[in-house]
Each structure stands twice: as C-alpha cells, then as structure tokens.
Write a structure and sequence with these properties.
Order of helices and strands: EEEHEHHEEHEHEEEHHEH
Radius of gyration: 16 Å
Number of strands: 11
Mean pLDDT: 95
C-alpha cells in the first residue's frame, strides 16, 4: 500500500538552555539533525519537511543540503527533504508547525517530531506510520510521547489557529478530540519521552 504520510521535523527553537542549535550538535562524526533524518529514512517515509526558525542561517552554513532544500525538495540518500523557515520563531514551536503544515498537501497524514526527542527504533516507528486514526500516539509505560501522527482531517484546521494565542497548542487540541479518534501504540523504546534540552541531557544521551 502506498505511503501517504510525510514527516515533520521541528527544529526552529532558540535552544537557550542547550546553548547551541540542537540539530547541529555533533553526533557520530556528523550532526544530530542528519542522524534524525537517517532514522526516518529507514522507514516507508519518502518526504521530510524540516521546520527551522532561530539559527536557520547557521544550519544552512554548516549543512549545505539544508540551504539547497529551502526553495524545493532535494534528495538525501533515498528521501526527499524540504526546509521551511518560520519567519516569526518568537511565537513558539506551534507557529513553526503551522508554517510547515501550510506547505504540505492537504490530503497527507503527518508524523511530527521535535529535534530534541530522539526518533525511536525503526520497527516501532513503522508501526506508528502504518496505523490509521485521527491521532496516533506512541506510549511507553503509560506515558505518551513523540512522534505524533495526525490525519489530514485533524491537522488542516490547526493552520487557522492564532499562533499568538497561548492556547494554540497541539497538546490542547489533542485533548479536545473524541477518544475514539485517538490510537495509542505501546512501544518498548523510551526515546519517545526524552527531552534533550541541556548540555547535561546531551552528555548522558550521547554516551548511550
């Protein structure tokens, strides 16, 4: 069956606590954002939209691929990548998500993951991709995490929300959804709950 899901990788934050752009942290002789892309490329996903905001020029300077991918899709290995820049990153991560969603075909499902949450193992990620509902959430030991899969009927209205409104948040919109429209998938990978926000977080994670 043809895959109708695209991946959204959000990397538009200021990274104040980390002290540097999280996607540009060194990881196994490369950059963390490229490691995240590599993990996605091992699944049925064929298109990745990367949302940048703060530090977008630094990303473009250090990884030419991300500069080339700004006007149109470019191929990286076997996957197509497009970079979308949020011109108002001060409005927060939801505004970056909205900026990206505006560029995605309205009939596609989206799988959303922030740059600071490691993407889980391929088999369980593929299980999320293959599950159909308004919202699909991975769950580790009773706690929901990322990536989150959204059906077009759910995410299209998100574009219309006011990003300046403090209540314009994905988690709040999910809470409004009828439980029958939400599927949780139990996973064994605790990565779905990690938040790599500080140098200390990164030091512990990168040693594992």
């Amino acid at each position: 069956m043809k895959n109708d899901t695209v991946f959204v990788l959000l990397a538009g934050g200021k990274s104040e606590r980390m002290g540097t752009a999280k996607g540009l942290l060194p990881y196994q002789n490369s950059y963390w954002i490229l490691e995240q892309i590599n993990r996605i490329s091992d699944t049925a996903i064929t298109e990745i939209y990367i949302g940048l905001g703060y530090n977008s020029q630094e990303y473009a300077n250090k990884i030419p691929l991300l500069n080339e991918a700004q006007p149109e899709f470019v191929f990286y290995k076997k996957i197509k990548i497009r970079v979308i820049i949020n011109k108002s990153p001060e409005l927060g991560s939801f505004s970056t998500l909205q900026t990206v969603l505006q560029q995605i075909p309205k009939n596609k499902s989206v799988l959303i993951n922030p740059i600071d949450i490691p993407i889980l193992n391929t088999a369980e990620l593929q299980s999320i991709i293959g599950t159909q509902n308004q919202i699909v959430l991975p769950n580790f030991e009773g706690k929901n995490g990322h990536p989150i899969k959204l059906h077009p009927d759910f995410w299209n209205p998100l574009i219309q929300l006011d990003p300046a409104d403090k209540n314009s948040r994905l988690d709040l919109e999910i809470k409004k959804t009828n439980p029958s429209g939400i599927t949780t998938i139990t996973v064994t990978d605790s990565s779905i709950l990690k938040n790599l926000n500080t140098p200390e977080d990164w030091a512990v994670f990168s040693k594992t």
